[in-house]
Write a structure and sequence with these properties.
It is an enzyme of class 3 (hydrolase). The protein is an alpha+beta fold and about 200 residues long. It folds into 2 domains: about 5-50, GTP Cyclohydrolase I, Chain A, domain 1 (Orthogonal Bundle); about 60-195, GTP Cyclohydrolase I, domain 2. About 40% of the residues lie in helices and about 25% in strands. It contains 7 helices and 7 strands. It has helices at about 10-25, 40-50, 60-65, 115-120, 130-145, 155-160, 185-195; strands spanning about 65-70, 75-85, 95-105, 105-110, 125, 145-155, 170-180. Strands 5-2-3-6-7 form a 5-stranded mixed beta sheet. Helix 1 packs across helix 2 and helix 4 crosses helix 5 (about 130-145). Bound molecules: guanosine-5'-triphosphate and zinc ion. The site of zinc ion has 6 residues, from loops.
Length: about 200
């Protein structure tokens, strides 16, 4: 099951989070007993567990469940994978797109598993750089391809809603292994995804 069902929320964690969210709501100057808010601590507790469920998932296993022997040895690109993560400094969302490519070395992976791996690492407290690196290293170590590339373009709510309050800046991070360290291969990948990069 890729996402937790209602029944799967850990009761003890939900209760602890509920208690703490109630205090937060009160400290912020709201009445936690107000009709519209009385269930908010529980809703927030579940929302935060959903958004951080990646800690309990194993990306390597997800990939290994759908790896197939195949002689195809050209570049495979999956682009425009939407992602939602939480910045570890402010616990505010950052969101954007991931573009992934790999060059198989005897085995391919089910395409849907690439976005699943993105979610496993995105659904935690993260920085964009480590998110990029986590995805890259997981694919490299598990699939053992001839090369792998990850580009992430994201916007950070902590830079939009507060702090410097810049609405139009976006951050691009990238990582390359194996054949993508060669400039021609890297350029071919960047060209294939370029319509999505500003
Ligand atoms: N490198 C990196 N920085 C991030 C990411 N998400 C948020 N940040 C930054 O983390 C930094 C934390 O800096 P601090 O000075 O400790 O926090 P702050 O006073 O709230 O900073 P401001 O956002 O500038 O108000 C900020 O510059 C954020 O923009 C990320 O994914 N990668
Ligand atoms: Zn932040």
């Amino acid at each position: 099951m890729p996402y937790k069902l209602f029944e799967e929320y850990n009761l003890e964690v939900t209760d602890n989070l509920k208690y703490n969210f109630r205090s937060i709501i009160k400290e912020l100057g709201e009445d936690p007993e107000r009709e519209g808010i009385v269930k908010t601590p529980e809703r927030a507790a579940k929302a935060m567990q959903f958004l951080t469920q990646g800690y309990e998932m194993d990306a390597k296993t997800i990939l290994e469940e759908a790896m197939f022997k195949e002689g195809y040895n050209e570049m495979v690109v999956v682009k425009d994978i939407e992602l939602y993560s939480l910045c570890e400094h402010h616990m505010l969302p950052f969101f954007g797109k991931a573009h992934i490519a790999y060059i198989p070395d005897g085995q391919i992976v089910g395409l849907s598993k690439l976005p699943r791996v993105v979610d496993v690492f995105a659904r935690r407290l993260q920085v964009q750089e480590r998110l990029t690196h986590d995805i890259l290293e997981c694919l490299n170590d598990t699939l053992k391809p001839k090369g792998v590339a990850v580009v992430i373009e994201a916007q950070h709510m902590c830079m939009m809603m507060r702090g410097v309050q810049k609405q139009n800046s976006s951050t691009t991070t990238s990582g390359f292994r194996g054949q993508f360290e060669k400039i021609e291969t890297r350029n071919e990948f960047l060209k294939l995804i370029s319509s999505d990069l500003k």
